[in-house]
Amino acid sequence: MSITLNDYLILSTIIFMIGMFGVFKRTNLLMLFFSTEIMLNAVNIGMAAISKFHGDLTGQMFAFFIIAIAASEVAVGLGLLVLWYKKHNNIDLTTMTSMKG
Amino acid sequence: MFEVVAFYLFAFLTIAMFSITVMTKNALYALSSLAAGMIFISAFFFLLGAEFLGAVQIVVYTGAVMALYAFGMMFFDSIKEIKESPKNPRLTFMLTGIISLIVVFIFIAPIIGANVTAHYPVGMAAELYGTIDGNTQDIGVVLFTKYLVPFEVAAVMLLVAMIGGIILSGKKMDVSITKISEEDLDKQHMGQSAQIELEEKDHK
Asked: Which of B27, B54, B175, B189 sits in a 20 to 30 Å window from B116, CA-based?
């Protein structure tokens, strides 16, 4: 018995679904960010697993770029979040309806 | 055998940690369990022979991203319990649909992938240079040949994100809230809320 590609991909799906569940459920924006981080990490596991089982390094390269994108997303997103909190004193998603016609 | 035990152990731990992150109502618990989950994920990368990726995962996620969240949380009221959205009836429906779709893709993926040949096989650096330094050297060879342009673009993107983050969160940083007297602070808050009310009136 050994671990196959399918095992890793199923694990990746489970973690991705946990993240997606969080995105649907949360209204606090900080928690929403955490859920997106979980989803990005799930994809990274899948990339690394495919890279190993096909013996190709491209999967790992894409995992690196995903990490870079996640880092910059956090920097800009957290800046915007701090700005919003200073102005409105909460970061609840349900209150962000100012664009509603 | 070792690999199987390690895989199931870390799979269980990761899923447990991320479930806590998604389910808990305390923001601090969510933050620390997320950091733990990130470290457990790096274990998968080590198992998969991607040592450099595992090290980067620990350094970037638990070192930089989590520290950034921890500092960001000082701005927010993190002790207050988080409010949840009311029960969403579409949630289970959509989740089951997406899960079944992805599982189907997972089981047909190896069939499609059987014909794919590796352009950048593992151990390429060893063949080219006759050294056996493992994963890190392989990554370096591929990253600085085929993926050089995306690498540079990623560097520019990180620079832009850094400047954006500083400018966004650095506004009004020259005013120290701790040094202002209580009355002034109250006045400022009153002024702000009055301004917001005015804006809302204008809007209506």
From this structure: B54
Question: Does A52 have pLDDT greater than 70?
Answer: yes
pLDDT band at A35 (very low <50, low <70, confident <90, very high): very high
CATH of the domain at A31: 1.10.287.3510
- The mean pLDDT value for B24-36 works out to 89
Residues of A in contact with B147 (CB under 8 A): 61
User: What ipTM is given for this predicted complex?
Assistant: 0.90
Confidence grade of residue B28 (pLDDT, cut at 50, 70, 90): confident
Residue B159 belongs to what domain range?
Answer: 88-173
Question: Chain A: residue nearest B59 by CA?
Answer: A67
| Nearest CA-CA partner of B84 in B18, B30, B14 | B30
Helix H segments across B2-50?
A: 2-23, 27-47
Q: Are residues B98 and B169 in the same domain?
A: yes
Integer Cα distance of B82 and A31 in angstroms: 9
Chain B within 8 Å of A95 (Cβ-Cβ)? Answer: no
Mark yes or no for CB contact A21/B22 under 8 Å.
yes
> Which residue has 């956090």 as its token pair?
A74
Single pTM value for the model? 0.80
pLDDT of residue B185: 63
Number of domains in chain A: 1
- Residues of chain B with Cβ-Cβ distance to A79 below 8 Å are 164-169
Cβ–Cβ gap A15/B73 under 8 Å: no
The answer on B98 and B78 residing in a single domain is: no
Q: Which residue in chain B is spatially nearest to A19 when comparing CA positions?
A: B22
How far is residue A1's CA from residue B16's CA, in Å, rounded to a whole number? Answer: 24
Q: A-chain residues within 8 Å CB-CB of B65? A: 37, 70-71, 74
